[in-house]
Design goal:
With about 230 residues, the chain is an alpha/beta fold. Helix content is about 45%, strand content about 15%. Helix 5 links the parallel strand 3 and strand 4.
Length: about 230
């Protein structure tokens, strides 16, 4: 089977999952992050090398103060509490997004986690926190202008080196759970030629068999890149 090297995942549907079970929506977020760790295990076992997950978008700042504060704390504890697991499993963690906009304690957790896992090589998990695809592109443009790079030296390769995902291969497969069928402003430039797969399942219910179905579908696709 042709296994994608880099998968982007939208762990969507956590709040809807919780509501349908009569739970507080915040409990859905916790269940969703736990399942993201499972997803990393499944990917690693199947030969996928990189996973990039939407954790918190630039638009998510518009949610209620209670939910935003909960998610900030959840992300902080999820990073720190799983350091031993990341190390044991050989998982390198990298956070992409507006780190300066995050609470100081979360910034410190990110720095600690990235430093502690930087030499791990079995799998790389990229978490988008306060991330938006349009922000990423605009931010790259600003930095290119700031550095005064000559116009004729700017090409796609150089531009990509200014994105928050610099150094990573382009995604091969985008998996979105939760039944929605859109890219929602996530790694827009990077996913230009990625194969798209949409699952009707809410993310907390997405399991290894669902990943196998997505990988089987990917294996059937013919990737011509416009040729």
């Amino acid at each position: 089977m042709n296994i994608p090297k880099h998968i982007v995942v939208f762990p969507d549907g956590n709040r809807r999952w919780a509501r349908e079970k009569g739970l507080n929506t915040l409990e859905g977020h916790k269940k969703g992050y736990d399942n993201l760790l499972n997803f990393c295990d499944w990917c690693k076992k199947k030969g996928v090398k990189i996973g990039t997950a939407f954790g918190f978008s630039t638009e998510n700042w518009n949610r209620s103060e209670e939910e935003v504060n909960y998610l900030m704390k959840l992300l902080e504890s999820a990073l720190i509490d799983n350091l031993d697991k990341y190390d044991k499993d050989g998982v390198k963690v990298r956070v992409i997004g507006q780190k300066e906009r995050l609470p100081k304690s979360l910034q410190e957790a990110i720095t600690k986690t990235e430093e502690a896992t930087k030499n791990n090589s079995n799998f790389q998990l990229n978490l988008g926190i306060s991330y938006g695809g349009r922000w990423d592109i605009v931010n790259a443009v600003k930095n290119i202008i700031k550095e005064g790079i000559e116009l004729d030296k700017i090409d796609e390769k150089l531009f990509e080196s200014y994105l928050s995902t610099a150094g990573l291969p382009a995604p091969d497969l985008v998996i979105r759970a939760g039944g929605e069928m859109r890219l929602s402003n996530f790694v827009l430039w990077q996913s230009a030629y990625a194969e798209l797969y949409f699952s009707p399942k809410y993310w907390p219910d997405f399991n290894e068999e669902d990943l196998d179905i997505a990988l089987t579908e990917f294996d059937k696709r013919s990737r011509r890149f416009g040729k």
